[in-house]
Design a protein that fits this description.
By secondary structure, the protein is of the alpha/beta class. The chain has helices at residues 61-72, 86-93, 122-134, 171-187, 216-223, 236-240, 261-274, 293-302, 315-322, 354-359, 373-382, 412-419; strands spanning 5-7, 19-21, 24-26, 43-45, 53-57, 76-81, 98-101, 114-117, 138-141, 150-151, 154-158, 161-165, 200-205, 227-230, 247-250, 278-283, 307-310, 336-340, 363-367, 390-395, 403-408, 425-429. It has twelve helices and 22 strands.
Length: 449
Amino acid sequence: MAVASAVRRPGRLPVPDGQAVGSKLVPNTSDATQDQPTGDPNYLVGLDLHGRRVVVVGGGSVAQRRLGLLIASGADVHVVSRAVTPAVEGMASSGQIAVTLREYADGDLDGAWYAIACTDEPETNAAVVAEATRRRIFCVRADTARLGTAVTPATARYDGLTLGVLASGQHRRSAAVRNALLEALQSGVVSDDSTPIAPGVALVGGGPGDPDLITVRGRRLLARADLVVADRLAPPELLAELGPEVEVVDAAKIPYGRAMAQEAINNALIEGAKAGKFVVRLKGGDPYVFGRGYEELEACVAAGVPVTVVPGVTSPISVPAAAGIPVTHRGVTHEFVVVSGHVAPDHPDSLVDWPALARLRGTLVLMMAVERIEQFATALLEGGRPAGTPATVIQEGTLRTQRVLRADLGTVAARVRAEGIRPPAIVVIGPTAGFSADAVVPHVDSAAG
């Protein structure tokens, strides 16, 4: 499927009031009307413009929006306009297009295969269409589409496909359908490939919790899975979208002792792939951020199973953002550190230099830290971090059940216990932990009153 524009018969202007289609007179218009035909009368076709001259008359914002796809198609684009936007000027400076800074003149379409009239002057646009019609060049008229000889559809590109939608001038409708088709392809609801996916394993980051925050690629692979091995923190709504033929395994319920849990998960992935299935290992956040993703990759590779890694939106950045907290801010912090809190500071297995963390001035994000929050706060205070340092705890970030507790380093542990905060939760410590979108004061232009 490849669509660049819809065209009408060259050599004549369309009749504004109507057009014969078969034995029926239907409106020939790109403007929304109350009485629309059952089908769009325009002929949808793909134009090969690579290396061919295309003339765009006008250099404003409308032209700017059209130029990107023309450049991507490889067209030899010439812009004629008295003035151009900075973005259009940048395209010319980089050699992507040619620009002539003057008024349009008859003859500017000489040698063109395609033309677009997009000035803010109806008379100029009409003159461009008239020349194009005389020369039998298809021409889009941006201000009044029905008076041109071509109509640009709502378009989108996806993995080698170009989608185009026309809706008899109902531009919002065509854009809505285009967006829905693109989302369906991206999510895997609609497949563009009928061939079965090869057996193997995909380690997919499901994001911080909200199912809309999984990546496009992750959702597409999930929709094609034969077997899904899901973590407790993987968005459950994503599993509800799977077909009844898909086998779902809850990794938390694999029947082995706690010490054997990871080995059992590795075996489930390998056995599924070797049985000819495409297996998705669905994790919360990102597979490689405290997710043991690389351990699973190593096990699969050692067993000869092909592995694909799909990064996810990681919670130590996205969850604070959902609470209005940036982990960095110009002039405030130049670093942020993400630390696992699965072992206490004084535990022999701890690899964290807590005194060094206490000396930092930036943002500290603690994962899996709620159970030992008293120990972590004490270690930072003893290392010299001021007790008044802002500390915010976000429970079930990005979900409708999200809770935000704001405190400081000296009081955060007691507040967590008093408020009944429980995992999953993220602790943010540092100057930006005191930030909140609700606290931002909108700028008011004093001259506006």
